[in-house]
């Protein structure tokens, strides 16, 4: 894999008359945790949506793990994980069932699912609540489950859009500890 996980060059995006992203440039090295900071409306979510192929690139270049995004969008979708700002779990299903759906969507074999789902639940300290409907979870538990959904297929790059918004300081620290653990495990 390339030593550069993400390369963004001269990126622009407008919504009609609204300039959402204007000449954004940055590089993220492999094995690093990179934070994209800016005030509300600065264009962070729009940039993430372009890097995850959810919005077309209007002008500029994006490379993920050495692949050009515009030339290899399907390859890139297999290689990344994306935890969006909006809720991505089904509250009526259990934690285990939510992970099962994502494991199937990412094309994991039955054997891989049998190994990785319990392993992920354990790593995120959700094994005790795995059989409970997610609507009974706290905000921090839901956020950890959403991260779990996006690491089952071992992505090379994980995008997190405001992963700790709305969490209390203890839950926030727990989520960041898990993110740091994922980063160091991938070294
Ligand atoms: N689908 C859309 N249609 C029109 N305008 C949009 C759309 N999505 C975003 N915008 C506008 O683009 C700009 C950047 O929005 P974006 O959501 O990327 O910012 P952000 O930095 O993620 O903000 P926040 O911190 O509030 O999440 C804003 O002016 C927003 O109103």
TrEMBL record:
At the top level of its lineage, which domain of life is listed?
Answer: Bacteria
Single GO MF annotation:
ATP binding
- Enumerate the PROSITE patterns for this protein: ABC_TRANSPORTER_1 (PS00211), ABC_TRANSPORTER_2 (PS50893)
Q: Which residues form the ABC transporter domain?
A: 6-186
The record's annotation in PANTHER family points to:
LINEARMYCIN RESISTANCE ATP-BINDING PROTEIN LNRL
Q: What is this protein called?
A: ABC transporter domain-containing protein
Query: What is the native source organism of this protein?
Result: Effusibacillus dendaii
């Amino acid at each position: 894999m390339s030593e550069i996980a993400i390369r963004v060059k001269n990126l622009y995006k407008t919504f009609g008359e609204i300039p959402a992203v204007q000449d954004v440039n940055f590089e993220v090295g492999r094995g690093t945790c990179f934070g994209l900071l800016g005030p509300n409306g600065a264009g962070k979510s729009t940039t993430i949506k372009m890097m995850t192929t959810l919005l077309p690139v209007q002008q500029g270049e994006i490379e993920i793990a050495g692949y050009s995004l515009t030339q290899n969008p399907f390859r890139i979708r297999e290689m990344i994980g994306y935890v969006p700002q909006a809720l991505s779990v089904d509250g009526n299903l259990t934690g285990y069932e939510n992970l099962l759906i994502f494991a199937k969507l990412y094309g994991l074999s039955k054997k891989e699912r049998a190994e990785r789902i319990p392993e992920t639940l354990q790593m995120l300290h959700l094994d005790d609540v795995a059989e409970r409907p997610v609507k009974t979870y706290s905000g921090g538990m839901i956020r950890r489950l959403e991260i779990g959904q996006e690491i089952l297929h071992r992505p090379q790059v994980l995008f997190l859009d405001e992963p700790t918004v709305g969490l209390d300081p203890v839950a926030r620290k727990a989520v960041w500890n898990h993110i740091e653990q994922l980063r160091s495990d991938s070294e």
